């Protein structure tokens, strides 16, 4: 087994790390304006990213991107997670954020939806979660009923990031509620200016970002806006679910990496009772455990990414990765805060923001309890 990254990915890692260290970390405490990045800073950073060749990294080459492998994206995600200069959710400064599902559209759909997003002319949001259907999509109540050349959509979506600024939604709705997630869910492209669609509530989270609730009241969507076929919504979703879990695990890796650096430096500088914190066994153990856990998790993440590229990954690999990575990020951020004491609570430091963001990823897009439950269910079939 080869535990080293290929040379081209080591060069990519160095380029992204240098970008984060030189361009992002120095401005991270001033880059955000509430839940969004300041427009002037975003524009400057996007140009710098283009100049360094860090643009449209995961977009396939046939669409003008660099077509990085999953392992390549893991390298990028881990490095950019070391800074709080960008929103933890939503587009960074390396081009529009595009879920893989948009590359599966038919030619007409690509012309209307994918290409305008790539050109920066349109923005999109993903709408799946509901008040009674978060980690359990089979309980979804939003329905899409076909009537002639349209689907009529009724229901309610919650926790939808970027809904306020989106031009269209990638919407998951039930076309056969009796089948649940096993053939009963479908995906649609839904223009936000469609009559019957209304953003009804804004919710601010402890991470500082904004999510929205959307009501659908007899909203008519053309049949040609169905993605794929009726009932294959969840099967299509599987194409990017693994990538999403890897992304969240990488958030944990990046936070842990930054926090290890912060706690190590502070432990050597901070003197209490006549000796630096670095001399305290309790602090030494926290640092040693953090480095050990980070190393193990990184190997798991790299392995899962490489298996995904090879087409051999299994669902339980992504479950383990999501559990290990997200819990690592919060655990190490918590230790970092503890070592810094009162300074760890200060908003002039990045620690509290990393702590809050890391905590959120244990919940969002699949709570770790659900990951463990499904993982155990799959494992027990082997005995």
Describe the 3D structure.
The chain has 383 residues and is α+β, with helices and mostly antiparallel strands. It folds into three domains: 7-98, Acyl-CoA dehydrogenase/oxidase, N-terminal domain (Butyryl-Coa Dehydrogenase, subunit A, domain 1, Orthogonal Bundle), CATH 1.10.540.10; 124-227, Butyryl-CoA Dehydrogenase, subunit A, domain 2 (Beta Barrel), CATH 2.40.110; 234-380, Butyryl-CoA Dehydrogenase, subunit A, domain 3. Helices cover 46% and strands 17% of the residues. It has ten helices and twelve strands. It has helices spanning 7-24, 39-51, 70-80, 107-118, 233-269, 281-310, 315-340, 342-345, 351-361, 368-380, and strands at residues 32-33, 36-37, 124-127, 143-147, 150-161, 168-174, 185-191, 197-204, 210-222, 226-227, 271-272, 275-276. A four-stranded mixed sheet has the order 3-6-7-10, with no helix packed on it. Strands 4-5-9-8 form a four-stranded antiparallel sheet, with no helix packed on it. α5 (233-269) runs antiparallel to α6 (281-310) and α5 packs antiparallel against α9. The longest helix is centred in the middle third of the chain and has 37 residues, at 233-269.
CATH class of the largest domain: Mainly Alpha
CATH superfamily of the largest domain: Butyryl-CoA Dehydrogenase, subunit A, domain 3
Structure classification: alpha+beta
Q: Give the CATH topology of the largest domain.
A: Butyryl-CoA Dehydrogenase, subunit A, domain 3
Give the averaged pLDDT, no decimals.
Answer: 93
Overall geometric form: globular
* The CATH architecture of the largest domain: Up-down Bundle
What ranges have pLDDT less than 50 throughout 5 or more consecutive residues? none
Using only C-alpha atoms, the radius of gyration works out to: 22 Å
**What is the helical fraction, as a range of percent?**
40-55%
Strand order of the largest sheet: 3-6-7-10
Number of domains: 3
Strand-residue proportion: 15-25%
In N-to-C order, the SSE pattern is HEEHHHEEEEEEEEHEEHHHHH
Give the count of helical stretches. Answer: 10
Described by strand count, sense and barrel closure, the largest sheet is: 4 strands, mixed
What is the distance, rounded to the nearest whole angstrom, between the alpha carbons of the first and last residues? 28 Å
Q: Tell how many strands the DSSP assignment holds.
A: 12
